[in-house]
Amino acid sequence: MAKTVEDFNKRRLRSSNITVVVSIALVLFLLGLMGLILINAQKYSDYIKEQLVVNAYFDENFDAKDSVKIVKQENDAFKKIQTLAPVKRATYISREMAAEEARKSMGIESSALFEENIFPSSVEIALKPEYVDPAKINEAIKQIKATPGIMDVKNNSTLMVEVYNNLNNILKWILGFSILFLVLAVVLINNSIRLKIFSKRFIIKTMQLVGAKRRFILKPFIKEAIILGVVGAVIGLAVLFGAWYYFITQIGTPFVQDNNQLIILVVGIFFLGIIITVLSTIFATWKFLRSNVDDLYYS
C-alpha cells in the first residue's frame, strides 16, 4: 500500500513538473516570437525609411572650358555630403547617367533625340532612419544645401512624413502587443507555479512545524524552480528558432541579421523564464510559510 501511495505521489510530482515546464516553454515561445517580430519590424521599418531619398542637384549652367574645375568641385561636394551626419548612403549621378536614365524611363532607344548635358548632375541621398523624422528632416536638408556646389535639394517631404508616421504607428502596436505578452507570461507562469506549490502546502507547513527554518524550506523549491525554468526556457527557445528557421526557409527571406540583437533576445528570454519561475516560487512558498494550519484547507 505504501509503495502504491509513493508511486502515485511520484507520478503526480512528475506530471506537475511537466505541466510547469510546458507552460513555461509555451509562454516563452510566444514571448520570443513577439520579440523576433519586433526586431524584424524595426529593421524593415529602417530599410523602408532608407528608400526615401533626397536629391541634391549641381549647377547645370557652366562654361565648357571650366568642365575640369566643375568635375573637381562636384567630386569634393560628393565627398563632403558622404561625411554629413544625416547621410546613410549617397550615390553620384553624372549628366550622362541622368540622360541615360531619362531615355530608359521614356522608352527612347536612340541617343540622337537627347543632349546629355540638358540634365544636371546630382547626388541621390538616403538619410539615416532617425533623420526621416519630420522634426529632423529639415535640418538634414539644410546641411545638404549648405554644401558648396549644391544648387537645389528636392524631396517629397509629405510622403516621408506619411511613411514615417505609419511605420511608427505599426511599431507602437507591435511593442504594445509585446508588453501584453510579457504581462501574460508573468501571470501564466506564476499561476502554474502556484498550483504546483499549492499541492505541497501541507509538506511546507509540516517542515515548518517540526522546526525547519524558512530559508531551509525555500532552498529546495528554489533549486527546483531554477531547473524547471532552465528546461522550459531551453525547450521554448528550441521550438521558437526551429519554427522561425522553417518560416524563413519557406519564404526565402533572411531575418534578424544583427547577431547582437539576436543574442540579447535569447539571453533575455532565457533568464526571464528563470527569474519569473524563481520569484513565483518564492512568493507562493512564502504565502504558505506565513499562513496558519487552518488556512491550508481554505487557500
Automatic annotation (TrEMBL):
The keyword rRNA-binding does not apply. InterPro entries: ABC3_permease_C, FtsX, FtsX_ECD. Keywords: Cell cycle, Cell division, Cell inner membrane, Cell membrane, Membrane, Transmembrane, Transmembrane helix. The keyword Metal-binding does not apply. Gene3D superfamilies: 3.30.70.3040. Its main location: membrane. It is a multi-pass membrane protein. GO terms for biological process: cell division. The chain crosses the membrane at residues 20-39, 170-193, 225-247, 262-286. Pfam families: FtsX (PF02687), FtsX_ECD (PF18075). Residues 54-153 form the FtsX extracellular domain. Residues 177-292 form the ABC3 transporter permease C-terminal domain. It is found in: Cell inner membrane; Cell membrane. It comes from the Bacteria. One of its GO terms (cellular component) is plasma membrane. Required for cell division and gliding motility. Belongs to the ABC-4 integral membrane protein family. FtsX subfamily. This is Cell division protein FtsX. It comes from Kaistella jeonii. The lineage of its organism: Bacteria, Pseudomonadati, Bacteroidota, Flavobacteriia, Flavobacteriales.
